[in-house]
Amino acid sequence: VTLTVTDSIGQTATCTATVTVEDNEAPTAICEDVTIELGSDGTLYIAQLPLLVGGSSTDNCGIYTWGPIETNYDCTDLGAHVMELPVTDIHGNISTCTTTVTVEDNEAPDAVCNDLELILDANGEIQITAADVDAGSTDNCGIASIELDADDQDWDCAEAGSHVVTLTVTDESGNESECYGEITIDDDTPPTAVCNDLTVSVNSSGFYELDPEVVGAGSTDNCGELDLTYELDESIMLCEDA
């Protein structure tokens, strides 16, 4: 700058001076807490996170950069993270503020069910598990549990036929989804036939009618004897059969 000095009779003289202007005022760093959600692949890159966190910061001459802070996240980062955000003005002055970045997984699992056709065992029973119904359910961050309703696990002869069961898949963050499988219960175990030898006497009319249930007493079936029916190919014994 040029300085001009004038005396009382109007004479002047000049000189020059170098004035160095500095900005030593640090920014006012203001941080916001933020919550971010992982994507369907269990990862997230959020380039604008520093600005989202520190965008309310101010400076007398202008802010140059926010950050750096971590901008890449995956399933191992779930939860709250406390970190410092540097805020730098255009003249290199820096101040920091503290933010909490909370990483969430709100993506529900992809529940996939099998349809099953099952055969009752020799005792007329069968048990199925969640693993039997599950057809490869997946989740972006990992499955915590796969559960089948308790009422859908144990079956017997009374349940022969088709039923719809519900499979619940829960991930590590508590997100749930359901799928439905059709379960067909069949009984293909034939009865065990027991034949009893009998000695009978024809009546005064010369014949004797056999009772099939007497001949077959002791026959069994995996689903119970009450539903068994008995039939003889020949039930009337005559004198000529003696």
Using brief descriptors, characterize the structure shown.
4-stranded mixed β-sheet, 3 helices, 6% helix, rod-shaped
Topology:
Blueprint: E1 2-6, E2 12-16, E3 34-37, E4 43-45, H1 49-54, E5 63-66, E6 72-74, E7 79-89, E8 94-104, E9 116-119, E10 125-127, H2 130-133, E11 143-148, E12 154-156, E13 161-171, E14 176-186, E15 207-209, H3 212-215, E16 236-238
Parallel strand pairs: 3-8, 9-14
Antiparallel strand pairs: 1-2, 4-6, 5-7, 7-8, 10-12, 11-13, 13-14, 15-16
Q: With helices defined by DSSP (H or I, 4 residues minimum), what is the helix count? A: 3
**What is the mean pLDDT?**
95
Gyration radius, rounded = 44 Å
Extract low-pLDDT stretches.
Answer: none
Structural class: mainly beta
Strand content: 35-45%
Number of strands: 16
Run of helices and strands: EEEEHEEEEEEHEEEEEHE
Distance between the termini: 146 Å
State the helicity in percent bands: under 10%
- Multimer state: single chain
Per the principal axes of the C-alpha atoms, what is the gross shape?
Answer: rod-shaped
Strand order of the largest sheet: 3-8-7-5
Major pleated sheet: 4 strands, mixed
Descriptive notes:
This protein has 242 residues and is mainly β. Helix content is 6%, strand content 37%. The protein contains 3 helices and 16 strands. The chain has a 4-stranded mixed β-sheet. Strands 9-14-13-11 form a 4-stranded mixed β-sheet. A two-stranded antiparallel ribbon has the order 1-2. A hairpin with a 4-residue loop joins strand 13 and strand 14. It is rod-shaped. The N and C termini lie far apart (146 Å). The model has no long low-confidence stretch (mean pLDDT 95).
